[in-house]
Amino acid sequence: MVAIHSPFLKLLMVLLMMPMAQETLLGTGSTALAAPLSESNNSTTPVVNNPSFDSYLSPSVGLKLPLSSRSEDSKAAVDPWMHVQRHLNHAKRRYAQINQLRVPTDDDLHAAMLKRREWVENEWLPLQRRNMDTSDEEVSTSLSHHLAQAPGKMMGMVRRTGSGSYLQGRSSGYPQADAKAANQHSVTSAGDVSTSHTSGLSIEANDIGYFVQVQVGSNNDNYKMLVDSGSADTWITGSSCSNCGGSSRNKLSTSNSNSLSVDNSEQYKISYGTGSVTVNKATDSMTIAGMQLDNFNFGVASKETSQFGGSNIPFDGLLGLGGSSLSTTKMTTPIQALYNNNKVSNPIVGYRLGRVADGDNKGQITFGAVDESQVSGSLHEFDNQSQNGYWEITLDSVQVGSKKVVSSSSSATLDTGTSLIVAPESAANAIHNAISGAKSDGQGGYTLPCTSNVQLSFTFSGQTFTMDSRDLLFSASDSSNLQGTCVSAVSSGDSGNGGWLLGASFLKNVYFATNAKTNQVALGKLND
């Protein structure tokens, strides 16, 4: 490596070597008549409009709620490019698992982070320094002076005043609300719901994760659980887990639930797209959307990697809602337990993922049926193509605007636990070749102008669903210039003919439901 003599460059190296905040990353019939369900939060009676997906029909409620930022989160700034690489690492590992390709090792993912950091040092920051006065005399003063003069993209720090701040407002470009949420790693609280067996979904940061509140134990304490349709193990952080979460983390133990029983004879390591947890099997009561499960089996975590145990992680555990064959612990999934205990008529889960940029959080999750009040028009059913527990359907084609860029049939896995979209390399290139100003970063990611208003459309078995153009912008590369360069929500996977992984960037645009009994998936256009 070339020796660094400039004090300014030395400062940049120091900044780049500072510890960075950890981001949340995870990994994704028959006719049944619906009858009134017991233990409901209200008296709403389900109605049936789809043969395999029962529905709860009621007025939808959306409350405009402010961002709720925790002080410990705002201390942990992340360079946007490293933030993106973490999500790329997670998405690529889960993509490989789904498509039965070589799964990247921890060393591979670490090497990708180092390569990204080298790219930031040698390509991205030099490009930004062209717009700065970098004479040694001017940069050899205090650290605070350097930070005040540095671009907002350095370590993700955002200038709160001045014409470049995202707080000034933009008529177009990357949404201000997303920039603020990403910078503060804040939580957008869940809104109220009026449908039976439904709970609101809170949003982590700029739509990178969604979690629901459940009640556990003899005291019915609240626990925030990340919802993940791409895994099948449910766990909660235990009190014995040191360095797991910040001050807001609610940990489970016999001290706050005298009905908790933990089996200490065996431990299980559960691995995700990035990160892992080590759990013991446990039994306690768990109430999900108003329905209590007595003697429910789940994991209590004694060890968590930083992706789950970091101080800025806003949830207390994970709700695994994929197929049971994905489970490491081989315990029953929550929806299957609700069904087995006659709490719901069918093992159906319906999702609507919220969007910070909308201003009001309409995110919700329904157990046992779908909420048709969230759907505009028909709910379309698709047979699950996966034999491994994922929720996978056939993808016919992809369009950028009115231009069809992918016409060969493929598979697409729908995963609420992944933020990005991962496409075969040829498809990812075709998409970005059709977007003016889009470029590859040479590492599986792409950039595009933040002012791009291109819409991406996916057709599944003849049914087309279109993404909001805002959802193609995963993050701004410079949080002080929201009309500059943005990171694309679409990344590339393998160089062959593998399938697609459609995470929250796509799923925010549809009503998504799964039925474990009929092994089907349903998609519908949202009723705004």
TrEMBL record:
Residue ranges of domain Peptidase A1 in the record: 210-524
Domain of life: Eukaryota
Bias (Polar residues) ranges: 162-174, 183-193
InterPro entries from the UniProt entry: Aspartic_peptidase_A1, Aspartic_peptidase_AS, Pepsin-like_dom, PEPTIDASE_A1, Peptidase_aspartic_dom_sf
CDD domains found in the cross-reference section: pepsin_like
Catalytic residues of the enzyme: 228, 415
Region (Disordered): 148-193
Signal sequence, renumbered to the chain: 1-23
A molecular function (GO) term: aspartic-type endopeptidase activity
Name used for this protein in its record: Peptidase A1 domain-containing protein
Homology family: Belongs to the peptidase A1 family.
GO terms of biological process kind: proteolysis
Organism: Malassezia psittaci
Pfam families, sorted: Asp
Alphabetic keyword roster: Aspartyl protease, Hydrolase, Protease, Signal
High-level lineage: Eukaryota, Fungi, Dikarya, Basidiomycota, Ustilaginomycotina
